[in-house]
Design brief:
There is one protein chain. By secondary structure, the protein is α/β, with parallel strands linked by helices. The chain has one domain (about 10-160): Collagenase (Catalytic Domain) (3-Layer(aba) Sandwich). The protein is built from five helices and six strands, in the order βαβαββββααα. The strands form two sheets. The protein has a four-stranded mixed beta sheet, sandwiched between helices. Strands 4-5 form a two-stranded antiparallel sheet. A hairpin with a 7-residue loop joins strand 4 (about 80) and strand 5. Helix 1 crosses helix 4 and helix 4 (about 125-140) packs across helix 5 (about 145-160). The radius of gyration is 15 Å and the shape is globular.
Length: about 170
Amino acid sequence: MVKKIKHKITASNQSDIKMNSTFISLLKQAVLITLRNEQVDTPCEISILITNNAGIRDFNKRFRGFDESTDVLAFPMQEFEHPGWGGIINMDFNLETGNLPLGDIVISLQKVMKNIKIERVTLEQESTLLMIHAALHLLGYDHYDEETKHIMQRIEKGLMRNMGYLDYGKTT
């Protein structure tokens, strides 16, 4: 019998676009499926902030030094020796909840809306891919060269298929 892990994923919307609970659930589900796929066996905490281009630009400038908007940012709170759950080093638990804070995800809904017009995909497809992508970053994955980019893309495409999006997955 597979043990079900209780991850805590919270989402807040600071964008100008109202999002319904179904959409918020989709974002959380994409993160949960990524955690399950990576066999994360410890209850984790992840927060998702939905914002606009100005909001994500501010995060990008403050924390990464890039004065530009982007579609999604991930801010890992744990250190990994190598990508994937098996590579985590020295778990730093939240003493109040007992959960492991993996990190924060910030997504610009305004940028996503622009992406879906360019990519000719649905809001659900693009948002799901971005959540999977960000969750992988929280688990130590990155795309700094062709090999690591290929690894992330392969995982992303597989997870998109698992979620019912048969042929969607773009380059990172």
